[in-house]
Design goal:
The structure is a single chain. With 90 residues, this protein is mainly alpha-helical. The protein has one domain. 53% of the residues lie in helices and 4% in strands. Helix 2 crosses helix 3. The longest helix has 21 residues. It is globular and about 45 Å long.
Length: 90
Amino acid sequence: MKVEFKIDEDRLTLGDMVDLTQGTFTYVNIHRLACKLLVNEAGEPMDVKEARKIVNEIPVSQLRQVIKDINAKVREWQDAAVPPENGPTS
């Protein structure tokens, strides 16, 4: 089964980021995130209910790559979010 995910910071919430960075990356959270990040053939986010049907059929071996991709993107966002050295500018 060919599925595609788009790891998009406009689809992820602060709660998602907390889960991802605080070690609460459980199967329940992986499932929830996969449903949010699944896109259709046009690259547009799918309805979560429809995505859930597809995600439920994804082999774990394929999901492992998605988890690696999500972790890499989160690290990239964290590296870009380093606060200024001199504190707030106001």
